[in-house]
From TrEMBL:
Plays a role in targeting PPP1CA to the nucleolus. The lineage of its organism: Eukaryota, Metazoa, Chordata, Craniata, Vertebrata. The gene is Nom1. Residues 181-208 form a coiled coil. Signal peptide: none annotated. GO terms for cellular component: nucleolus. This is Nucleolar MIF4G domain-containing protein 1.
Length: 341
């Protein structure tokens, strides 16, 4: 039972919170709508101020919602616009804290997984994939996730998946080659094997052939063979990113080295990639399987020593053991040996 005055206080608190969130959403929305390359510096500065003034959770959720609404549309988003949005996230990720990029990445990956399973007709999957690709381009996430997504797409291998593989390789193929050439080589071999077995099933053979040619061009580091490949815009924005990031270093230490599986099962196993993230899910280790702690065995100790340990308030077995070892050892080497045992 909740007394009426408490109930009323809660309701007014909820209204107040809702109002605050509405105001925050308006401010963030206003900034995102004005976002462009020339004013990125001032907008990222204002966003950092908002992060300082509001709770991180509210800011992360608001920013993620607004960016998802802006970028995940049924029509293909212009690449330039997409890059600028992701660049803003990467600057906040480096300057404010890694939970900014982590929150956004998790939302994008979950949405992508959900849309891949459903047969959506629009370009939402491409848009989400472009977001993930640029998060990798701007050093928010490690190549491990990109390889996971590519492996998943290759394992399904339908027309839709081939489109997505081509799209992803065109955006980040050469960066992947630089980061992990061996993994890319394995992926290409797997794709060739799949293409050979799936040849009868797929109607559009030219698409598969084009994908394999693209992959070979990547393996041979031949940029001319990939139509429409232009690394210039990404490089330009990377330079801008370097000027806007406060901390020194290449940003490799803030890259989230997280796999696709970990992101999709974050609610079950917790978010180990965010330092200090709270988690209220089911325990990771089953308590029924855990073995009872072994009794510590320390030779025969006199009752006088035990009495001393009790006086010093050594109230657990392990504390008593350590106390007795320290008190009865001949020298430091002896103590060290006994402690190790």
């Amino acid at each position: 039972y909740v007394p009426p005055q408490v109930r009323k206080a809660q309701e007014t608190l909820d209204d107040k919170k809702r109002e605050e969130l509405g105001r925050l959403k308006k401010m963030v929305n206003g900034l995102i709508n004005r976002l462009s390359e020339p004013n990125l510096s001032s907008i990222s500065g204002q966003m950092e101020e908002l992060y300082m003034a509001n709770s991180r959770k509210d800011m992360n959720e608001t920013l993620t919602d607004i960016l998802m609404n802006a970028c995940v549309t049924a029509v293909a988003m212009p690449a330039r616009l997409m890059m600028e949005h992701v660049l803003l996230v990467s600057i906040l990720h480096h300057n404010v804290g890694i939970e900014v990029g982590a929150h956004f990445l998790e939302a994008v990956v979950k949405k992508f997984d959900e849309l891949c399973k459903s047969d959506a007709e629009g370009k939402e999957c491409e848009n989400l994939l472009a977001l993930i690709a640029h998060l990798y381009n701007f050093h928010v996430v490690h190549s491990l996730l990109i390889f996971d997504i590519l492996k998943k797409l290759v394992s399904t291998f339908t027309e839709k998946e081939i489109e997505l593989i081509l799209f992803l390789l065109k955006n980040v193929g050469f960066s992947l080659r630089k980061d992990d050439a061996l993994a890319l080589k394995e992926l290409i071999t797997e794709a060739q094997r799949k293409a050979n077995t799936a040849e009868k099933k797929l109607q559009d053979q030219t698409r598969v052939r084009f994908m394999l040619e693209t992959m070979l061009a990547l393996r041979n580091n031949d940029m001319r063979k990939i139509p429409g490949y232009d690394p210039e815009p990404v490089e330009k924005l990377r330079k801008l990113q370097r000027t806007l990031i406060h901390s020194s270093g290449s940003g490799k230490e803030t890259q989230l080295r997280v796999s696709l599986e970990s992101l999709l099962s974050a609610d079950q196993v917790g978010r180990w990639w965010i330092v200090g993230s709270s988690w209220s899910g089911a325990p990771m280790i089953n308590d029924t399987n855990s073995k009872p702690q072994e009794k510590l065995h320390i030779g025969k100790v006199s009752s006088k020593m035990m009495e001393l340990a009790r006086k010093q308030r050594m109230n657990t077995d392990i504390r008593r053991s350590i106390f007795c070892v320290l008190m009865t050892s001949e020298d430091f080497l002896d103590a060290f040996e006994k402690l190790l045992k």
